[in-house]
Amino acid sequence: MAPGEFPRTVVSFRFGHMLGIEPLSAEEIVFLLDQSKPFQEIQRHPLKKLATLRGKTVALAFFEPSTRTRISFATAASRLGADQMNLQAESSSLKKGESLLDTVRTLDAMRPDCIVIRHSSSGAPEFVTKYLPLPVINAGDGTHEHPSQALLDALTIRDRLGALEGLNVTILGDILHSRVARSNIHLLSKFGCRFTLCGPAMWLPRELECLGRAGTSIRRVTRIAEALEGADVVLTLRVQQERLHEPSLSIDEYVLQYQLTPERLRIAKPGALVLHPGPMIRGLEIDPAVADGPQSCVLEQVTNGLAVRMALLFLMIGAAADTPPEKESSHAAD
Amino acid sequence: MLLISNGRVLNPASGSDAQRDILLDGDRIVGLAPHGQLADQARGAEIFDAKGLIVAPGFIDLHCHLREPGGESSETIETGTRAAAHGGFTAVCPMPNTRPVNDNASLTRSIVERAAAVSPVRVWPIGAASIGSKGEALAEIAAMKQAGIVAVSDDGHPIANAKLLRSVMDYCRELGLPVIDHCEDSSLFAGAVMREGKQSVRLGLRGMPAATESLCVARDVQVGELTRCRLHIAHLSARASLDLVRAAKARGLPVTCEVTPHHFTLIDEDVEYDSRYKMNPPLASREDREALIAGLADGAVDAIATDHAPHEPALKDVEFDKAPFGITGFETAIGLGLELVHAGKISLMRMVELFTSGPARVLGIERRIAENEPGDLTIFSTEHKWTFRAEESASKSRNSPFDGREFRGAPMATVVAGRIVYQR
Hints:
The complex is a heterodimer of chains A (334) and B (424).
Chain A: H1 8-14, H2 26-42, E1 57-62, H3 68-79, E2 83-88, H4 100-109, E3 114-119, H5 124-129, E4 136-141, H6 147-161, E5 168-172, H7 179-189, E6 194-198, E7 218-221, H8 224-228, E8 233-236, H9 241-245, H10 251-258, H11 262-265, E9 273-275, H12 288-291, H13 298-321, H14 325-328, H15 330-333
Parallel strand pairs in A: 1-2, 1-3, 3-4, 5-6, 5-8, 6-7, 8-9
Chain B: E1 2-11, E2 16-25, E3 28-33, E4 46-49, E5 54-57, E6 59-64, H1 77-86, E7 89-94, H2 105-118, E8 122-123, E9 126-127, H3 141-147, E10 151-153, H4 162-175, E11 179-181, H5 186-189, E12 194-195, H6 198-203, E13 207-208, H7 211-227, E14 231-233, H8 239-250, E15 255-259, H9 261-265, H10 286-298, E16 303-304, H11 313-316, H12 333-342, H13 348-355, H14 357-363, E17 377-387, E18 406-416, E19 419-423
Helix pairs in contact in B: 2-3, 4-7, 7-8
C-alpha cells in the first residue's frame, strides 16, 4: 500500500470502535502499526506533547483495577493534547450499585469524544457500544480481548525481527483465562504465524485450537521444553495468583514446570524474543535473568504501548474530527 | 354454547386427524362430529369458523415463571397468563421460585386464587420440593397438593443432596406427584454463563460442559430407580442426558423429560454478548440440538415446555456475565414448533402431542378432544405469516432472542373452559 493511501476498510474503521483484534484484517493491522511509527518517534523527543487533539476529551473508564494500561492511555491522551475524565473502579459509583449502563451514560453526558473501557466482564465494551453514540476503545475486557496490548506486542516484534509473517510463537501460562493470549493469537494468525500454547492441562482446553484465522496451526503442549523448540517469539503471561487456587495448583509446582529460565530459553531459536504484558512477577512465571536479559522486550513493550495508544486515539478522535458535521451529530440525535 | 366449525381436528391420544365440528357447552365439550352434523344441537351457538385451521386439545406448558409474588416488575400472574393465552396455551405450570418460594399451602392457595381472578388460562402451580428450595428439609408437599400443586420441583436450585432427593421421591411417589428436577451439578457449573465450547473460549465467557447436566440426570435416574417415583427432567439440553433418559425408559422406569423451543432452535454458536441468549441450561452444541430434535421426533422427549422466564430490562440490560438467566417463551413456542414441522423434522401430529397429551402424561392426566372432556382447545394456523415483536408482547418483559423473527404458523384462538380467551 502506498503511503497515505487508506484501504476502504480502514477508512470505515476510523469512525467505528476498537473492540478487538478478531474482526480486523491484516491490512488494517499493518495500517495501525504504520500509524504508530511517528508516535514512536515522539517518545524520543525532549518535548513530547502535541496539540493534535487539543480541545478533545478522552474518558477513561476503568471498572477493573489497572495501573499500567490506565497510565499508558492517560499519557497517550496527554501527549496528544487531549483532556481526560477518569473513572476508576475503587472510586466509582459502581461501588454504590450503579449499573454499567448508567455509569457510562453519565460519562457520555459530559460529552467526551471517546471512551476507553477496561472491565472484568467479557464483552462489556461491545455492550456499551449498543447504547452510546461515541467511539469505544476496549482496554481489556474480562478474558476476551486486549487489542492495544496485541498491537503493541506486534509493533515490538516487527521492530525487532523485521516482519510478522510466518513466525513460531510460543505462549506460556494460563491461556484459557488470558485476553492477551487471545488478542495475540487473533493478530499474529492473520500473518501466518504458528502457535504453541503451553501450560497446565486445565488451562489448555482443546477449543483453544479454534482461535485465530481459520486454518491456523495451534498446538497445545504441556511440557515447556517441547513448547520452546523452534520458537521465534516467547510470550510469557502473568500468572494470576487467584487462578492458581482454582484448580488447586501450587505456585511451587507452577514454577517447577513452567517458569521461563535461561536454560529453557536456550531451547528456543537463538535470539528469540521474550515478551511479557506485565505486571511481571519475577521468580514466578519468569526468571529475573530472562526478564533483564538481551532477549527481553519488556520495557520496549511499555514504550510502544504509548505509541500504539496515541495512534488509536488519533485515528478515532482526530480522524472523526475531519468528518462532515452530520456524522458527528450523534449526540444531538440521541 | 360455542361451535368450532370445520377445523382439522388433531387428537394425538387416539391418533385421529379429521375435519370436525366441536360443540362446547358450559366448560365442557358436548359434541364432536363431521362438519354440519351438529347443526341441530348447536342452534343458537356462537360459531368460530376454523376452516383451514388446526384444532388441537388445549396446549399445556409444564415449565414457566410467572414471577408473582415477588418479581412483579418482570411479570405478574395476570400478564404472564395473558401472554400464555396469546401463545395458544390453555394451562401453564408456574415454577415455585417466587419470592417467597411457593413451599407452603397458603402461598399455593394465594397463587390459585389470584389466577382464578385474573388468568385467562388454567394455572397449575408446581410446589417447592424443599423448604425455601434450599435443599435441606422437605416442604409441606401434601398440604400443597391439597391446595392445588401438580408436581414438585426446586427449579433453579437443583436438589444437591441425594439423600434429600430420595426422601422427596419416596414421599411424592405415595402422593402421586411427579418430581421435576432442574439437573445441574453445581461444582461443574461453577459460575458459568454459557455452554463450554469453541464459542465460550472465543468470547472469553465461562463455560460449563454438558456433563454439568448429564451427571445430575444420571444420579436422578438412579435415585428414581431406588424409589420408583415418577421423575421428570426439566429443560433437557444435552445428548448425554437424553441417552440416560432413553436408557431409563428402556428399563421401564417412569422417567420423562421436556425440551424447550430455544434448545431445539438455537445453539451456543448463536451466543454473542447479548443477554437475550443467556439462559440456564445454556444453549447447547449443534450435535446436542440434533439429538434433541431426534428425541422430539422418536418419542424419547415427552413434552415441549417453554421455560418462559421474564426479566425486566433493568435486570437484563447489563454485562453478559452479570445478567440473570432466562428468556420469555410463551408467544413464540408454537411458531418455533412449527419450524420443525415445516422442516420435515417432526410431524404435525407429533408436535401437537408434545404440547398436549405428552405433558399431560407427565402430570398423570389425559388430554384429548372427546365428549365430556374439559372445553380446552388450541386453534392454530400452520401457514399464517407473522413477525414476533417483543415490544408488542403481552408479557411484561421483552427478553426474547426471537424478537423480529418471522414465523409461518401462529396460534389463532385459545379456548379455555368453553370460552374463547384469545383470538388473533
